Amino acid sequence: MTNAAPALRRGAAAVAAAPLANPAGTGILHLGLGSFHRAHQAVYTAAAIAAEGGDWGIVGVASRSRSIVDGLRAQDFLYSVATISPDATSLSIPGVHTDAFVGADEPARVVSHIADSRTRIVTLTVTENGYSYSPATQHLDVDDEGIRRDLHGGAPLTTIGQLARGLQARALAGGAPIAVLSCDNLAANGKHTEKLVREFLQELPGGEGADTLAYLDAAVSFPSSMVDRIVPATTPALRDRVGLLLGASDAVPVPAEPFSMWAIEDAFPGGRPAWQLGGAVFTDEVARYEQVKVRLLNGTHSLIAYLGALSGVDTIPEAIGRTAIAEAARAVIRGEYEPSVEAPTGLDLRDYEGQLFERWANSALGHRTSQVGSDGSVKLRQRIPEPALLALGNGHLPHLIALTVAGYLSCMAPLSGFEPGAQAAAMTDPARDSLSAFAATVRSGRDLARHVIADLRLFGAELASRDAFIERVGELTTMIQRHGVDAAIADAVDAASSPTKGQHS
């Protein structure tokens, strides 16, 4: 790959949609150097720098994997974003990264970058699972081994530990203002991140975190944001296609859909790039954007992934192409998710719904059901409780949300004698081992549902006490595993469309 960078620069001039950003310096540290960041925040930052200039280059920190870091270093931190639709594939090369390293290998370097006054923004895409909190309590998980270790000194390895220790070092170095911007699918992600960082500092022995807490009050912001773009995993076929289009080898290209949205709370005490020039929206309605995205897109996406995997299909376009699954998706959006959201100003929910189905049907993108369905124990906790509780509070059983949970349980924790298929087996989840071990000891979906929802409180304390919902999840789990996923879909959709069946006492 020694000649990759010059070839990429030549390819960029020939076919890329925008010039390389060429930042004047580095002002952003990004934690979580995965495909999503490189196809989303990096693209917006490149557009801002191309339009206005500025020292907003990004140092990217991968959590553990060396593959992206090594690929970027070999290519002078250049890579291509392939925007894929059924009609065409277009390429752009952001050119906005100035360095990259692996946080697990150099944790002290993460702290020093946060402490450096030239860093004015820290952005995060570490997934819902990267915040070291208890889904049941929404507080910092002080029993987590990594958090315990980071609290007792040494170079921190957890994301929250790195943020807290970095801000502690920054406070000691003079306390220049800085923003910490979460870009993960967490409700009120800015406030959530701030709460966890503060709880970490409060847990430090001997009042060690007091000065840093005062610094947070004076000079640190935690704006919330909503990010929206479908970014599948990179495949060898994509690398080959990019190589042909670019006329150069790219070891780390990223595929993405044409649609992209970023809604951000405008609170950046150290300044920020002009992300709005790349299409970002600065708004005080981020919470409304979050609700629409996390529930209508993400919640329904999970349902499609589990039903698709249990139907034996590899990709989201194949799954949504099945009439029954499409009907279930429309039913959950209109009947169970839409009543729980307040649309941001100017956003028409019916238009957004239409866009969702077009995006899911993008067969050229090839988004896999196994990728979308992974980490459901963390993702679903963000997506289903509030709309489910709202429906229950109004006297209605949310049958399609119950089907989502039943699909998740059937993929992760099959009862004895049930084989969920290769796509379900390919899903990863931190709770898989414990759930599947329990499923092997029981005979019914009801027992499994009660254990997961009521005993483990995997979806929060409030749903844990809703017997009607737990019973319905159990019924649908049993139906999937004894009569097949099509039977469960038909039963849930029929019940949701019947006023009598949809009520509970």
Description:
The chain has 505 residues and is an alpha/beta fold. It has helices at residues 4-15, 35-39, 41-52, 67-74, 107-115, 145-151, 159-172, 189-203, 210-219, 236-246, 286-310, 316-320, 323-337, 349-360, 369-373, 376-383, 385-393, 399-412, 422-425, 432-439, 445-455, 467-483, 485-497, and strands at residues 26-31, 57-62, 81-84, 89-92, 97-102, 121-124, 178-182, 220-221, 225-228, 254-256, 261-264, 281-282. It has a six-stranded parallel sheet, sandwiched between helices. Strands 4-3-10 form a three-stranded mixed sheet. The chain has a three-stranded mixed sheet with strand order 9-11-12, covered by helices on one side. The chain is globular and about 60 Å long. The mean pLDDT is 94.
Concise overview:
By secondary structure, this protein is α/β, with parallel strands linked by helices. The chain is 49% helix and 10% strand. Helix 11 (286-310) packs antiparallel against helix 13.
What keyword list fits this structure?
505 residues, alpha/beta, six-stranded parallel β-sheet, three-stranded mixed β-sheet, 49% helix, 10% strand
